[in-house]
Amino acid sequence: QKEVEQNSGPLSVPEGAIASLNCTYSDRGSQSFFWYRQYSGKSPELIMSIYSNGDKEDGRFTAQLNKASQYVSLLIRDSQPSDSATYLCALRFGNEKLTFGTGTRLTIIP
Amino acid sequence: NAGVMQNPRHLVRRRGQEARLRCSPMKGHSHVYWYRQLPEEGLKFMVYLQKENIIDESGMPKERFSAEFPKEGPSILRIQQVVRGDSAAYFCASSPQRPSGPTDTQYFGPGTRLTVL
Predict the structure, then answer these.
(1) Which residue of A has its CA nearest to B59?
(2) What's residue B41's pLDDT?
(3) H or E element: which one contains B116?
């Protein structure tokens, strides 16, 4: 059974601090990894994608992938209140569909 | 700049009725995916379609649910004889082609929120 696990939170982080979101997965065949942000009542919005081991940076966001340890993380630097949302980790296991975790609810405290 | 379009955005049905959810992919996209999100849960894959062809329906419930993507017109997700447990947000996503690269991604529509009374 392919699984994606995330800490459901809620995770509270002071404004300006670094928010760290983690995701582990069980299938070593996973090829591509995605972080989506979802505001309450809205659709998922792609934040980052990563498929190679290491770090990938885009503005305040950094995705980290460690295939040997089977985890992927998302760091948000200089957290802003507008970053408060649910963050969904998603994997593609070599076919076309995305498999999602249950999401981590992040709250940035002003 | 038309993204993925879904309608209706909100749908209320009584138990036993039929629900039809429509999805128009982004311009130039020929692949459609349907996902369901139950309250306080993540998204669960339901079905993946190409024009006139179902590629993967491994996430579809065995009964009452069907999907199509005709040559002309939107993709339709049909739920017959709805029950309260069908209440959820149904999201459609599209991609331009079968993923050929590791970061080929899917673009999500705004969703249809189905409420079964």
Answers:
(1) A97
(2) 79
(3) strand B112-116
